[in-house]
Amino acid sequence: MAMKRTNMKDIAKKAGVSTATVSYIINKRTDQVITPQTIQKVEDAIQRLGYVPNLGARALASKHTKLLGLLIPQTEEKKKLMFSNSFYGEFLSSFEYEARKRGYNILISGTDVDESYFDIARKRSLDGIVIVGVEDEADIVGLKKNGIHTVLVDSYGMDKELSSVTIDDRNGGFIATEHLISMGHRTIGLATGYLTKEGVNTERLKGYEDALAKYGIELDGKYVYSGTVSYEYGFELGLELAQMQDPPSAIFATADILAFGLIKGLKQGGLMVPDDISLVGFDDGFLASNTDPALSTVRQDVDNKAKIAARLVIDMIENQEDRSNIVLPVSLVERDSVRKIG
Amino acid sequence: MAMKRTNMKDIAKKAGVSTATVSYIINKRTDQVITPQTIQKVEDAIQRLGYVPNLGARALASKHTKLLGLLIPQTEEKKKLMFSNSFYGEFLSSFEYEARKRGYNILISGTDVDESYFDIARKRSLDGIVIVGVEDEADIVGLKKNGIHTVLVDSYGMDKELSSVTIDDRNGGFIATEHLISMGHRTIGLATGYLTKEGVNTERLKGYEDALAKYGIELDGKYVYSGTVSYEYGFELGLELAQMQDPPSAIFATADILAFGLIKGLKQGGLMVPDDISLVGFDDGFLASNTDPALSTVRQDVDNKAKIAARLVIDMIENQEDRSNIVLPVSLVERDSVRKIG
Questions:
Q1: Is A276 helix (H, G, I), strand (E, B) or coil?
Q2: CATH number of domain containing A32
Q3: What angle do the packed helices B19-26 and B36-49 form, to 10 degrees?
Q4: How many angstroms separate the CA of residue B262 from the nearest CA in chain A?
Q5: Size of interface A-B (CB pairs under 8 A)
Q6: Quick check: A332 and A176 in contact, CB under 8 A?
Q7: Which range of residues forms the domain containing residue A182?
Q8: Is the complex ipTM higher than 0.85?
Q9: Count of domains in chain A?
């Protein structure tokens, strides 16, 4: 079934004027002289027939669709969006709200490995796009070259070419690790996502290394555990750690979701947090204070990050504003998952 | 900056043919005789220039946009999507994945109280829409009347007019409450979202009432606690219960997120689950097994619900399939949040 759409012709007929006159009024053309009576007749007809402009057709004329793309690259082929990580839910929630207040809708898409951001932007006539966690520079070049309003979130490497919002990931890794050191820990593991050339995990690893170096602790590669940023991987790693002869006395997990899985996996393997192993997470989503033990973690303001990303891209679209690169601060939240030792 | 899009004219120039010929080939018109050599020339030009069809323009012609709307009504004015409830994240994740596999993108929108679903569908030329948790019948009538392919999820009342996917909410409320009764509880509270005329919370309440009636326990309105379906409301209620002279010995919470807040609020108020108050949730999201205590809850298969919703709406669009109403089963998962008493 095709839907019946009231068009300008219907309005014109109802109002007893020409279709051109209706178009002039709807498009607020100031180069045409139209009497107030005619405007009134057309507005009455619009009210009665319930005309809603077709943004698809309008976009072809004005080149504005008021549609933003929120693209979330998939690191593995044909994968679902990782929405079990509440980070994405919190981000989307704030981003959609901020955009909606300014009259924009959101097209959300996981992008498969073989898909180009530029193709999506072009196919869907997006006014602008926000990409969360980009790792493929090649693709970004196409966006830049074609002048598509783009904001990168949590992406490294291309942030000097395009607008971006990041947090101080490296410092986050540093303060998490320094906190564990200050509590007496000397064998400190790192649980993280895949370590690519550039990316948030790699930055947090650098911060971890900075802290070890500052306090003269040698970096031992066997303590760096890397997998997917998921509850499942954290759980699996927790079970493994519980079976090791000599596990580290503390872990810095680069995402709360990894820490949640770790707590459960360690427990299943017979080790308690913080009695047997101390733990610091990263994100401070709303659940961090609700796990048992409550999680010490590096706090980032996801709500604000999403708001800023939405504002940046809309300001670029509407006001032709220039590129901005924004780095938001992080801080340590101490709760109950770290024990003082030694 | 406007993006430079390769159009049919560019292709025609490159291939040395007319624009009409390019259009015939791109649109696979069979009523025109075109030589294989010409087709080859045009296809080469397309390859070299990187032509991507503008789905906006194409949609105007074919009436298909391959764009689905996922609409999440807001029960309060100007509110953010409730993505702190992992239900929505899990739903979106599966829905987007299923749709993407079939070549569709997702427009996601919270709809404000004063916004019509039909207006969004029309403005955005959506091929179909899926609405999660509708409570306003008036608006749905417009969709039905205008023949917009629609699937309602977790919605009651209009499911005989449109396609729908629900779970057996009433039975879920029944088995949760019956379980608490079988464990010796006689004063059983209900923590739930706002109770509208029709809706999942109201169905779960009916199931709760069914179980009380079956076992001859009188329903006492003072034990029915209703607020937003949020961690915050659960927490607040937990604090209140902890201060009551005579709180119920058990609570059935109609969403896990309420149960998580309750555990924390009760604990802060000095009461432990299940030692002081037993608790059964609803959803069985991935965190239910990770809280402490692990949560006994009513399991629904959100992943499958989302997949089915995507398939239903796409089958209606592509194969003109008729209305279906699907009800998925629920089951009780016993963990550690219920204590046997009496």
A1: coil
A2: 1.10.260.40
A3: 90
A4: 10
A5: 169
A6: yes
A7: 169-301
A8: no
A9: 3
